[in-house]
Amino acid sequence: MEFGTIGVCDSIAMNHIGMHYSLASRELIADSVEVMALGHAFDGLVLVPNCDKIVPGMLMAAARLNLPAIVVSGGPMLAGEAVSPKDGASRTIDLITVFESVGAVKAGKMSESELSAIEDAACPTCGSCAGMFTANSMNCLTEAIGMGLPGNGTIPAVMSARLRLAKAAGMKILELIDQDIAPSRILTDQALNNALTVDMALGCSSNTVLHLTAIAKEAGLKLDLDRINQISEATPHLCSLSPGGSYHVQDLHRAGGIAAVMGELARADLIHTECLTVSSETVGEHMTRAIDPEVIRPIDNPFHRQGGLAVLYGNLAPKGCVVKQTAVDEEMLRHQGPGVRFGRRSDRGHHGWGDPKRGCYCDPL
C-alpha cells in the first residue's frame, strides 16, 4: 500500500508566517506514518523522504513503531551553473546563491536581471538542495546511522543509480521482515555516535541537533548537548560543502560518498564498525577509500581540527545553543559590539521594535 504525508518545503516556507509551521510538521509526519502503519497492520515500511522535516519525521516514526523499515531518499539535485554578465566567468551555484543575490539586489549591488538569471540556473534538476543543508544532511546521516543503503545520502536524484537504489530497497525490506531486523537493532547508542561523528566530519546543518535528539528519544536513547561537543572536539572536519564551502553533494558522491567518509574516520578509530545496517551487513563491510582527497580530506589533513558543529553556553544561552563553527569566518569567532534583545511582552503598548499582534519586541541596548 502506498500513502503520502504532508511535506513543507523550507525554501518556500521562509520569510513569512509559514516559518512557524515547518518544524511542527515533523511531528505530524511521524504521527501520520504511525497511524497508517498500525491502522493497516503493516509488516514493514519503505520510507521515501527528501525534504528537511520529512526525513527526521519518518525516522522518528520508524524508531517509534519498531517495524522493519528502510529509508530510500529521493536524492540531491545537481548544482547549477551561472555565467557572470560582467566578465563571462562561469561559477557553480545553488539555493544559497539565490538568497545572497536577493540581499545583493536589496543593497544595490546586483541588478534584477542578474538575480533572475541566477534564480533560473540555481536549481537545474529535481532533488533536495545541492549543498549540505538540512535535507541532504539528514539523508547522509540516515545512511551513516544504518537506516539507508549505501549511496542513500549522495546519489544524485537524476542518476539511474538512484532508481537502482530504490529497487534494491524494495527487495531488501522483504529480507528485513523475514529476518526480523527492526530499527531497535540498528538505532543503537553506537550507531548514534557514528551519525554524530559523520555529522561533524561533513559539516552538516545545525538543524541535525534538533532532529537527532528527537530520533534518539523515540529510540529510547539519551542524547544531550555535552555529548555533541565531545564528539565534535574529537572529530576533524573532512568535507567543506556548501554553504560553508565550495563543493556540493554531487562532488561528495563522486569522491566516494558516506562510505568513504566513514572509512577515513575509521582510520582514527572514530567509527563503530560493528554496527548493523539495513543491508543486513555491518558498517565496516561497506566502508571504502576516498577517491578525491580534496573533497574528502585525509584524517591527518582536515579542513578544521574540530567538527562542524559546536554547542555554546553563556549568559545569552544558559541551556546551550548550536553554531555551525566551520562555516563561520574566523574574524567572527570573537565579537564585541552593540546587541539587540529579543523576547515577548504580554502588553501591546511596547516601545521596542517587533510585531505587536504577537507581542514580540526587541529593544536596542
Task: Report on the architecture of this protein.
- It is a single chain.
- The N and C termini lie far apart (58 Å).
- This protein is mostly helical.
- Helices cover 38% and strands 8% of the residues.
- Helix 2 packs parallel to helix 8.
- The protein is globular.
- It has three domains: 217 residues, no CATH class; 43 residues, no CATH class; 30 residues, no CATH class.
- The longest helix has 20 residues.
- It contains eleven helices and eight strands.
- The chain has a two-stranded parallel sheet with strand order 1-2. A two-stranded antiparallel sheet has the order 3-4. The chain has a two-stranded antiparallel ribbon with strand order 5-6.
- A hairpin with an 8-residue loop joins strand 5 and strand 6.
What coarse outline follows from CA principal-axis ratios? globular
- Find the count of extended strands (DSSP E, 2+ residues): 8
The rounded distance between the terminal residues' Cα atoms is 58 Å
Order of helices and strands: HEHEEEHHHHHHHHHEEEE
Unreliable spans are: 347-365
Helix content: 25-40%
User: What is the CA-based Rg, rounded?
Assistant: 21 Å
Strand order of the largest sheet: 1-2
Query: Mean pLDDT, as a whole number?
Result: 92
Number of helices: 11
Query: Describe the biggest sheet?
Result: 2 strands, parallel
How many domains make up the 3D coordinates? 3
Secondary-structure class: mainly alpha
- How much of the residues is beta strand, in percent? 5-15%
